[in-house]
Amino acid sequence: MKKYYLWLLVLISFIVMNSCTSNSNNSLTVNSPDKKINVKFFLSRENQAGYKIVFNDKTVIDSSLFSFDFKDQNTFGSNLKIVNSTTSSFDETWKTVWGEQKYVRDNYNELKIEVKEKSDLQRRCFIVFRVFNDGVGFRFEFPEQDNLKDVTILDENTQFRLTGNHTCWWEPGDWDIYEHLYNTTRFSEIDALSKRNHPDLAQTYIPDNAVNTPVTMKTDDGIYLSILEANLTNYSGMTLKVDKKDLLFQSELVGNDWGIKVKTKSPFVTPWRLILMADKAGDLISSRTILNLNEPNKLKDVSWIKPTKYMGIWWEMHLGKSTWNMKSGRHGATTENAKRYIDFASENGIGALLVEGWNTGWEHWIGFEDREGVFDFVTPYPDYDLKEVVRYAKEKGVAIIIHNETSAAVRTYEKQMDTAFALYKSLGIHAIKTGYVGKIIPKGEYHHGQWMVNHYRKVMETAAKYHLMVDVHEPIKPTGLRRTYPNLMSEEGLRGQEWNAWSSDGGNPPEHLTIIPFTRMLDGPIDYTPGIFNIKFNKYKKNNQVNTTLAQQLALYVIIYSPLQMVADLPENYEGNPAFQLIKDVGVDWDTSIVINGEIGDFITIARKERNTDKWFLGSITDENARTLEVSLNFLDADKKYDAIIYSDTEDADWDKNPTAYKIEKKTVTSADSLALKLVPGGGTAISFVPVKE
Ligand code: NOJ
Ligand code: CA
């Protein structure tokens, strides 16, 4: 045993010597374990701290500087000297409670530099770089110090200097909501201003020319980059200001109406700034670095955390078939309707039911920002017997997901939270969907600012205490906290399926879902709510529709990752439809995930192996263009034969003209086979692979 450790030590020192070298007094470098990524930390001539990143011998982030503007203090970032630096290596594999894969390898080289001002103040900071094989994370750690005690950050100025006018997939840096379409433009053409004030959004605040993260890019020589953040804790979300003249993105923290970005005390650390890099677009999606930059699981008992598919008294409100409020006479959340859904879920092995509109307050829930909230989180409408619904569901083996729409009246919610969560726990409820529609009350705070970051954290932690999984709508984007709090299951944070039900711009175009996996999904699970079979829903809305084929809706169960995965359509639209079999069969928790192919905004194919079974599932989708994708099945276990059930568009299918024409074929296949997937415009293919019993 001892001998083993000795060798390990020798090996680690060797790696460290190889990966971190001091080139001069004013610069230090560190490599990724596979040496493909090189990070150089430096002090400029003016003694400003900065860094540069090389990937496969090409500079991908050119010399970029850091600085912090503090209230009532000079900017921190110049006149620095390096006091100390340490290097270390880490290589450990950990098991996920649930996720895209069962085991995650956390392997990086770290360089930690202590810098100090040469001036009287002598303020200090550690800059920590972790270099993984697929990206670079860095953060700032301010230790406790006399000249930096109570801290008000007016801005963090972290630069990401680009090396070319890359193609960028971006959405405006809205402080309140991520529900914008992604734009595809060259860096120089980014124009976030023109994306202001979508008619279907309440007025939200978008600063001049900033984008939200993740922002994903492709260089002209075919390198893919994405900038995001990990472990957003007691800090503000980061948007990126677009500096066209200097060809750089610069961090612009979300603030409040008092001009404050972050209020804290030393010691404090910033979130990790993360840059993923890859030769293939799909490799961005395979990265688990965002999780590795978060702390290990803090929840001891996780027996109540269970990934599941769920139905909802939900789509029917978005369609206008029923309403959230009771007064209309078309109330969706009635005991009777809930039982109808529960029966259907139970018969079809769908594990849970979300019920929205069950509690009082929905008569006047939007546009009442002058009130401190209208909702009561414990009182059901008279036609909804909460206890009876929960009892009935339990009898039928279906869990209830409780809904808390706060209408962004955050203080009111915090006041009621403990009482409400205790009630849910006493009823045996283990999942909650929250929502934050509208402007934040109190006025002056924003969804993505520090005040709200801390609120979302409080809800997640309180929910954990009461054994509740959470699914957050109008959230702060995920930053990998699900590793530490595996009750943080899923989040919205994008233009989800609901936009297809009511958006005045015609909904999410076919291209949308071929961009999402390479942008928003890099942050974490998405509650997109797939599975709409009645694509045109003309009975309810003539001017809206889902802009994909039915087969693509099936493929989304594999493409879009969520441990709480919705079966979004109405029971009557599934009844008797053979395609529903895929939704019944498909997994929600995975042993392995493989991105087989993909180009951003064009197409993507993912295969996933279900956790604790030998089944594989494959999903493939395209944008508005038809294409044929040749897919090798070499991901399948080599020693097995599989019954493949293939759900695909018929040749004449089309997302607009003929969206529901699909076919189901059965084949016996092995890992030596390949398939030609024929995708029609807006189409997709979903396949289940079940090992043949011999
Ligand atoms: C917006 C959410 O995204 C949606 O899922 C929910 O139904 C409504 N708000 C009402 O809470
Ligand atoms: Ca929403």
What's this model, at a glance?
Helices cover 17% and strands 34% of the residues. It has 694 residues and is α+β, with helices and mostly antiparallel strands.
How would you portray this structure in words?
- The strands form 5 sheets. Strands 1, 2, 3, 4, 5, 10, 13, 16, 17 and 18 form a 10-stranded antiparallel beta sheet that branches. Strands 6, 7, 8, 9, 11, 12, 14, 15, 19 and 20 form a 10-stranded antiparallel beta sheet that branches. The chain has a 7-stranded parallel beta sheet with strand order 26-25-24-23-22-21-27.
- It has 694 residues and is α+β, with helices and mostly antiparallel strands.
- The chain has 13 helices and 35 strands.
- Strand 28 and strand 29 form a beta hairpin.
- The protein is globular, with a radius of gyration of 25 Å.
- The two termini are 43 Å apart.
- Bound molecules: 1-deoxynojirimycin (NOJ) and calcium ion.
- 1-deoxynojirimycin (NOJ) is lined by residues 314, 356, 405, 435, 437, 473, 492, 498.
What is the approximate shape? globular
Beta-strand content bin:
25-35%
Ligand names: 1-deoxynojirimycin, calcium ion
**What gap, in angstroms, lies between the N and C termini?**
43 Å
Write the CATH fold name of the largest domain.
Beta-galactosidase, Chain A, domain 5
Structural class: alpha+beta
Mean pLDDT: 95
- Put simply, the count of helices is 13
Largest sheet: 10 strands, antiparallel
The number of E-state strands comes to: 35
Q: How many domains?
A: 2
- Assembly type of the chains comes to single chain
CATH architecture label of the largest domain: Distorted Sandwich
What share of the residues lie within helices?
10-25%
Question: What Rg do the Cα atoms give?
Answer: 25 Å
CATH class of the largest domain: Mainly Beta
Runs in which pLDDT lies below 50 for 5 or more consecutive residues are 1-23
